[in-house]
Amino acid sequence: MTRIGIFGAAGRMGRAIAQVAQEAGLEIAGGTDRGGAGELAPGIAITADPLALAEQSDVLIDFSVPAALSAHLDACIAAKKPILIGTTGLESAHHALIDEASRQVPILQTGNTSLGVNLLAALVEQAAARLNDDWDIEIVEMHHRHKVDAPSGTALLLGEAAARGRGIALADHSERGRDGITGARARGAIGFAALRGGSVAGDHQVILAAEGERIEIGHRAENRVIFARGAVKGAQWLIGQPVGRYDMKGVLGL
Ligand SMILES: NC(=O)C1=CN([C@@H]2O[C@H](COP(=O)(O)OP(=O)(O)OC[C@H]3O[C@@H](n4cnc5c(N)ncnc54)[C@H](OP(=O)(O)O)[C@@H]3O)[C@@H](O)[C@H]2O)C=CC1
Ligand SMILES: O=C(O)C1=N[C@H](C(=O)O)C[C@H](O)C1
């Protein structure tokens, strides 16, 4: 039976993943969090030792914090185990670490594990490819009041899809955190806006706006189960993949 280890096990996502995995008949090898104490479920310990967890697991799932990424990658490399990374708020240095580690173990990294969001990204890429930069692209997201990073990983994933469709680099064209006298919108920019409040699991809307008309496509997550299901499916898919870096496209057949 597949043994899943969960980094960030005591968090909102860690607990949702443990529940989905157990309902699917998989074994939870254990979990880590910052404190490293307690139980994830009766008999399933939470520790602060990523290497011990990696050694006991067939695959690791990480929904924790960017600051813990390096230790989690080191543990997976030492134990030669694949890892699915769902943690968001990653910066270019984190992506460089993932690229480097993916030469030694299979790694799936994604800002969103749900089927719906990944299909939305494919649609956004197609729309951006067909419409020229008379069409302004804006990405609006809303999440619960506890979320600590912005824009969301999903908003960035959708921005990357739009940039791919346009044949441009997102880093050179993104407009984030507008405030005050910002000047007019740059032609070809991809804009981001983040709202926070209440218990929203994750809403994303992509707006393509031209003179006189507007296309709006989006996704609303009604709960975290959709992310947990995708994470468990992705982790199972990752076992047996060759060393390399992956996203959800292969898992979902998109
Ligand atoms: N890709 C996707 O589809 C999704 C991604 N996410 C992302 O997943 C991440 C977690 O989200 P969520 O569960 O809501 O957040 P929580 O804050 O509920 O959980 C984060 C967990 O990580 C733990 N943690 C903190 N530091 C460490 C560490 N050094 N080592 C191990 N664990 C640590 C925290 O422990 P402690 O409480 O002790 O600090 C906590 O248990 C976020 O980045 C979020 O954006 C969320 C949903 C879907
Ligand atoms: O923090 C969350 O909750 C979520 N984070 C991910 C993100 O940053 O996009 C995915 C999902 O929207 C929920």
What does this protein look like?
Catalyzes the conversion of 4-hydroxy-tetrahydrodipicolinate (HTPA) to tetrahydrodipicolinate. One of its GO terms (molecular function) is NADP binding. Keywords: Amino-acid biosynthesis, Cytoplasm, Diaminopimelate biosynthesis, Lysine biosynthesis, NAD, NADP, Oxidoreductase. Its main location: cytoplasm. Its EC number is 1.17.1.8. The strands form 2 sheets. This protein has an 8-stranded mixed beta sheet, with helices on both faces. A 5-stranded mixed beta sheet has the order 9-10-8-11-12. The longest helix is centred in the middle third of the chain and has 16 residues, at 115-130. α2 packs across α3 (69-79), α3 (69-79) runs parallel beside α4 (92-101) and α5 runs parallel beside α6 (153-166). The model has no long low-confidence stretch (mean pLDDT 97). It has helices at residues 12-23, 50-56, 69-79, 92-101, 115-130, 153-166, 170-173, 225-238, 248-252; strands spanning 3-7, 27-32, 39-41, 44-47, 59-62, 83-85, 106-109, 136-143, 174-175, 190-196, 202-210, 213-221, 244-246. By secondary structure, it is α/β, with parallel strands linked by helices. It folds into 2 domains: 3-109 and 224-252, Rossmann fold (3-Layer(aba) Sandwich), CATH 3.40.50; 115-221, Dihydrodipicolinate Reductase, domain 2 (2-Layer Sandwich), CATH 3.30.360. The chain contains 9 helices and 13 strands. Bound molecules: NADPH dihydro-nicotinamide-adenine-dinucleotide phosphate and the ligand O=C(O)C1=N[C@H](C(=O)O)C[C@H](O)C1. Ligand LZUJQKHR binds next to α6.
